[in-house]
Design brief:
By secondary structure, the chain is mostly beta strands. Helices cover 3% and strands 37% of the residues. It contains two helices and 16 strands. The strands form three sheets. Strands 1, 2, 3, 4, 5, 6, 7, 8, 9, 10, 15 and 16 form a twelve-stranded mixed sheet that branches. It is elongated. The chain starts with 10 loop residues before the first strand and ends in a 5-residue tail after the last strand.
């Protein structure tokens, strides 16, 4: 693979004080990305006939790998394992898969851009509102190397109709063909510590769309028909697996206004009992990440299928708990392909029909300081983690 030496990655930013208390900030950058470690080498020697991977299964730990001992046992060196290309190609126990990448793959890159308004509400409080966007291109995706490019009935022989019938179906081809687009609105409020109180709160409302699939942690399903005319990768364009529509983060500290040198209960026994108490917290609340509901049957040989959403059915109705989060009645299989009728409709609809459970977490601390001689103090602290659960 040849390295690209013309990748130009400019970055520019600006800051402008439009009013005494209003600042406008913005920026743009082009960032080239490294390849994800997906465990596939582009070297010729990992493919047939230089490298052959065979799998054998024995019935139990004491019985040889095959009942007739055609392969051999470990202590005898597996004498009959085929070690030549000709023997491997004709061996009934061997399936040859193809692995590959483009010879001169394009570099993945992302363009990032943002525009923000920052306003000083008070001497200790700043509010900001901004737009953030990212567009990624030539992202690594994993495609099947040997499959079909036509819609066939479920009973059709996939291997006989594949590109290379003499090789195993499946395999892996790492293409630089994916793309994603992220657009988000972000709001932020920061109150620096004053009068015993500090606060940092932010809210994000965003959407990420694309046709990429994470090579190592795919949560939205594979491509249904990457080589079928009229479908391809674009047919599985949907929400990114990292998409979270709404996110709220709130953290802060509050020193209760009781006790000595405070506004309330600052003398006598009441000052000793109520004084010195403080609290802090971190709250995270966000929507769930998208997922794809697949068909429960094979509708076309060698191709994927997404379930259709049933009109009038709430996909989140019903038990809505750990045992059953989605409503089964809200999804249905499309009709299966037949010899006389085979269309893209047999593959169902778009991916990421629903999202998973939302996330809520509140960590809370309550503590009190007790004065001690020589500028020292003791502290009592009580902490609760994941209070919302």
């Amino acid at each position: 693979m040849l390295a690209q030496k013309t990748n130009f990655a400019p970055r520019v930013g600006f800051s402008y004080q439009a009013l005494p208390k209003l600042v406008v900030r913005g920026g743009y950058g082009l960032f080239f990305q490294g390849n994800e470690n997906h465990g596939l080498s582009v070297s010729n020697y990992v493919n047939f006939p230089f490298q052959i991977t065979s799998s054998y299964t024995n019935s139990n730990a004491a019985t040889p790998i095959t009942p007739t001992n055609a392969v051999g046992t470990l202590q005898n060196g597996l004498l009959n394992v085929p070690l030549t290309a000709a023997a491997a190609a004709t061996s009934a126990n061997t399936s040859l898969s193809l692995l590959g990448e483009p010879r001169n793959a394009k570099s993945s890159y992302a363009q990032a851009y943002n525009l923000q308004l920052q306003y000083q509400v008070t001497p200790n409080t700043i509010a900001a509102l901004g737009y953030v966007g990212t567009g990624a291109r030539h992202v690594q995706v994993s495609l099947s190397t040997n499959t079909v490019n036509t819609i066939l009935p479920p009973s059709a022989n996939v291997k006989a109709n594949s590109f290379f019938p003499d090789f195993a179906t499946g395999g892996t081809f790492i293409a630089r063909a994916g793309e994603t687009d992220y657009n988000g609105l972000q709001a932020n409020v920061e109150h620096r510590f004053s009068y015993g109180f500090s606060l940092l709160a932010n809210y994000t409302w965003s959407k990420c769309l694309g046709d990429t699939r994470d090579l190592l942690d795919n949560g939205v399903g594979s491509y249904r028909a990457p080589y079928v005319s009229g479908a391809g990768m674009s047919a599985d364009y949907g929400l990114c697996d990292i998409n979270v529509k709404r996110i709220v983060h709130v953290s802060g500290t509050y020193q209760l206004p009781f006790g000595k040198n405070h506004q309330l209960l600052n003398t006598g026994v009441a000052s000793w009992v109520a004084g010195g108490w403080s609290t802090n917290w971190i709250l995270t609340a966000q929507d769930g990440q998208p997922l794809t509901v697949a068909c429960t049957t094979t509708n076309a040989a060698g191709l994927g299928c997404n379930a259709l959403k049933v009109a009038g059915q709430n996909p989140y109705a019903g038990s809505h708990n750990a045992a059953q989060f989605l409503n089964p009645a809200a999804f249905a299989n499309p009709p299966a392909a037949t010899v006389s009728s085979a269309t893209l409709a047999n593959l169902g609809g778009s991916p990421t029909q629903v999202s998973g459970p939302p996330y809520r977490r509140l960590n809370l601390s309550v503590f009190r300081q007790f004065s001690a001689p020589k500028a020292t103090y003791f502290e009592f602290r009580a902490e609760v983690f994941n209070l919302t659960n």
